[in-house]
């Protein structure tokens, strides 16, 4: 037990950890060999969550201080050991990848500076830096000329966007702006910001506001519809084609229907890189529809937006430049640590709709970033994005992104070449879905009718779930899973493996190992396979057992 | 210019910065002597913002990569140099203080692990850890028994709170929960989350929802009222007494008025440590009123909540245990880096009102933290709070908090002892406001009538603004300023200095220096003082010039 007295407390604020202390050694290890540190300290084999919880069940804040070394040992054995090795090249199930080394010491610098970006008084140069970062991303999307950025990037009354903790807040901010602009002050009506949503609907004579997005839209949009008072039911899912892209005819019909019902389309949302399949909506066509219905066009490019950094592939996002607002997460394909979301606004005046002030900070006319953001106090994460863009450079990012897409194409080819795996959704960016299907089932599925697919799919789903779970638990590699409704299988809800190939350290050999491991796990699932076999026999899809 | 090729890119993900590189040296300096590093690299004298902006005006993402060393030099000279020395013991104007040393290497560890707390699959042990941290803060506020925490802390369907990027999101989350609970599903009505706010008001027959808070409430509450569709006008400010505490009679009357107008009180918000004056509302009496009107009682203890760690002072927050929800920021008086807000819920089932799921994560029945949070992907900041609570301990925190309050009392006494300064609001916690008033004015103000106060105050306001701005620019010390309506001065809007004395390294000698510096600046403000003098003469408050 450490001492509790003035002197001891003063020390923790003034005396650094010694280099040979436990924490000093960890820090050295992290600096010298991050991957080695993670590989050594994170236990591969999964410990049941209930057991981990036992180390985190004391609700009392400890009375007495603990020595830093002792506490660090606890963290190593109980927390780090049972963390997820998100930087591992075989952890390809989610959008978290490896980080460039230089960001680690820079992150420490950022934390040490402990700036608060809500206001100039606690951030100074960090405010222009963050505005610069937002400006650079704005330029990436909208490519305005230098005069535009000279005029607006550092203007107190304007913002080219807002830095957020993540894509969820970014999407929410975009819809907040759209909502407040639609129900703006008008005559006696002081605007929704002042009078509230119900008064706004009444004033403008709308029965409801509706947001339209493809059925592949991110769940944060439903959350935003809830938070903003619009209602989850009024986030209407529009059907997608066989490539998971919104059907523009269906979108237009949905807009018509809203009008016929006395509602108002608040926003149309294009998805640039769906979370589950990585596909990109036909943004240019959606922009046309948004114009026809005089509605806000938002593009959720949280994951796929970084593709704009690749001259080779940025055409995939054609039309994004017509969006009124765009969400991009730098902590996804820009290789920045967690906590770097952004929303960009085409028109620098849009943020007027959400402007707010207070007496002691974010005063009228100040350049305080807090006057146009949903969040209040925030750290200087923008520095991570700024540094990554400078040290990697656009050309560096282009290489990273092109490589990821090529790797996904390689993996799709590899899967197709197996007689017991099948690609479910093709990669457009570096994301694809697939599943294991025993050889005989794969052959039989090729010509199966709807009833057969309906009866076989639940068994295949159980098998996919089983393999995904066992593979995760074994700790050697990780793919995620989701449920899709593939057109080729009569839209039957199908569980699939989902991989995101953004980690530059993932090799082709590793991808081969991953499917081999899945095959081996599947082979051991005898009862699930037995049930599948029985079902096939009952369906008349297997005549003999030979 | 650095190279752009596969090999070079691979290196930034695999080869650490050498210890003798620019960044390596910075890291060493940070580790060995943070205060020295900050003191050495942050330029004291303020550079005009427009000049700083010139270093951050290139909206093009650079095509070519920059060497890390070169980029680091840029950061040092252009960003760090013109950052704010928030850890300085003479930076007493805002709620940001010095950080304990051990948190720096731990922050690097956190960033290196790069967990995403939205789901178990990308956070594993960090999920139980975060639930533990929320549980510890819940216990600090509500002091339930061990059985309570055993039952609820790790329950998939429940949450004792939510970890947020800051107090703003925490307050917003609390009101979101309150709103969705009030307009819950009922018969044919599927609830506000599904159907939206207007449908909810119509179903329940309320003309409007109203949130009541004292006129000292934080600006984030107005923002929350906007975002949630309630409307800023429906966040009603209730008058405060001479100590900036809400008048309970006025609160009760306000509740009556809402009902008479056909509205519904959505929530009553108590402030535990107002941002501008540090005072605490009479929480127990407010809880009674909330019960009488069957409304949600939220306490915004973003800043003052840490006072609960002091057995000597926690009585100041009596009644907080009756709150349905409480906001606490660990990045304020808990000495954790920026980005650690929390909202706590007395009843672990309250979060049902905002629960949401998706196919690929936060599935039904999972323990994924993302199902009960406003934000999506989030970093493992909870680890910073966990470690600080263990290494400092409750007794350590008590010492820190008691010392801060004593320091504030010392400073108030010091100001009172000057014949040219006056305390405007007394410290209840470690926050107080005061101003410089030339000796003759101070004497004259003692017996001044309302007209005299009304005419003198604008001149005093100008002087206070001038001194605050010059002192900030000189860079030796920083106090903030705000505008209050002090009862002792006929509620005339008065600009005041505002100080928060939470930095353990701030000494009494420094406080003496700070007011001496203010006095010297004020003495040079000859034209402002001349105008004040003329006004006094015209008011007949000075008979002769001797």
UniProtKB/TrEMBL annotation, chains A, B:
Belongs to the group II decarboxylase family. It comes from Idiomarina aquatica. GO terms for biological process: carboxylic acid metabolic process. InterPro entries: Asp_decarboxylase_pyridox, PyrdxlP-dep_de-COase, PyrdxlP-dep_Trfase, PyrdxlP-dep_Trfase_major, PyrdxlP-dep_Trfase_small. GO terms for cellular component: cytoplasm. The keyword Lyase applies. This is Pyridoxal-dependent aspartate 1-decarboxylase. The modification N6-(pyridoxal phosphate)lysine is found at residue 332. Keywords: Decarboxylase, Lyase, Pyridoxal phosphate. Its cofactor is pyridoxal 5'-phosphate. One of its GO terms (molecular function) is pyridoxal phosphate binding. SUPFAM superfamilies: PLP-dependent transferases. The keyword Lyase applies. PANTHER family: CYSTEINE SULFINIC ACID DECARBOXYLASE, GLUTAMATE DECARBOXYLASE-RELATED.
């Amino acid at each position: 037990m450490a001492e509790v007295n003035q002197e001891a407390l003063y020390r923790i604020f003034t005396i650094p950890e010694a280099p040979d202390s436990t924490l000093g050694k960890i820090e050295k290890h992290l600096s010298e060999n991050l991957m080695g540190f993670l590989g050594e300290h994170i236990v591969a084999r999964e410990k049941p969550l209930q057991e981990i919880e036992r180390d985190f069940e004391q609700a009392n804040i400890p009375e007495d201080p603990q020595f830093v070394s002792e506490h660090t040992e606890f963290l190593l054995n109980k927390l780090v050991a049972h963390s997820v090795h998100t930087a591992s090249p075989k952890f390809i199930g989610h959008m978290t990848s490896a980080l460039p080394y230089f960001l680690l010491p820079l992150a420490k610098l950022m934390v040490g500076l402990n700036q608060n970006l809500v206001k100039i008084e606690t951030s100074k140069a960090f405010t222009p830096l963050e505005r610069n970062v937002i400006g650079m991303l704005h330029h990436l999307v909208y490519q305005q000329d230098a005069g535009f950025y000279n005029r607006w990037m550092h203007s107190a009354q304007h913002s080219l966007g807002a830095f957020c903790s993540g894509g969820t807040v970014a999407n929410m901010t975009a819809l907040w702006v759209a909502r407040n602009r639609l129900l703006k002050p008008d005559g006696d009506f002081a605007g929704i910001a002042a009078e509230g949503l119900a008064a706004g609907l009444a004033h403008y004579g709308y029965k409801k506001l509706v947001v339209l997005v493809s059925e592949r839209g991110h769940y944060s949009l439903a959350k935003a519809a809830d938070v903003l008072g619009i209602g989850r039911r009024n986030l209407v899912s529009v059907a997608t084609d066989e490539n998971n892209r919104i059907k523009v005819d269906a979108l237009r019909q949905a807009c018509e229907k809203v009008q016929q019902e006395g509602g108002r389309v608040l926003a149309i949302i294009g998805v640039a890189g769906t979370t589950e399949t990585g596909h990109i909506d036909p943004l240019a066509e959606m922009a046309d529809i948004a114009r026809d219905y005089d509605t806000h066009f938002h593009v959720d490019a949280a994951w796929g937006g970084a593709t704009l950094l690749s001259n080779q592939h940025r055409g995939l996002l054609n039309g994004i430049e017509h969006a009124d607002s765009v969400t991009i997460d730098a902590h996804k394909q820009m290789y920045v640590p967690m906590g770097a979301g952004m929303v960009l606004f085409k028109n620098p005046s849009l943020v007027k709709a959400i402007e707010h002030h207070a007496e002691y900070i974010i005063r009228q006319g100040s350049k305080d970033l807090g006057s146009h953001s949903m969040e209040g106090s925030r750290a200087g994460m923008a520095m991570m994005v700024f540094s990554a863009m400078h040290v990697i450079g656009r050309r560096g990012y282009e290489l990273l992104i092109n490589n990821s897409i090529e790797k996904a194409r390689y993996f799709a080819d590899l899967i197709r070449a197996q007689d017991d795996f099948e690609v479910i959704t093709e990669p457009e960016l570096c994301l694809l879905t697939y599943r294991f299907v025993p050889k005989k089932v794969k052959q039989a599925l090729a010509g199966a009718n709807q009833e057969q697919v309906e009866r076989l799919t639940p068994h295949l789903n159980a098998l996919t779930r089983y393999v995904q779970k066992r593979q995760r638990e074994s700790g050697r590699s990780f793919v995620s899973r989701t449920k899709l409704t593939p057109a080729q299988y009569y839209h039957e809800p199908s569980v699939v493996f989902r991989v995101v190939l953004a980690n530059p350290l993932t090799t082709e050999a590793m991808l081969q190992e991953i499917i081999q491991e899945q095959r081996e796990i599947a082979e051991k699932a005898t009862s699930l396979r037995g049930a599948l076999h029985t079902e096939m026999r009952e369906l008349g899809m297997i005549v003999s057992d030979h």
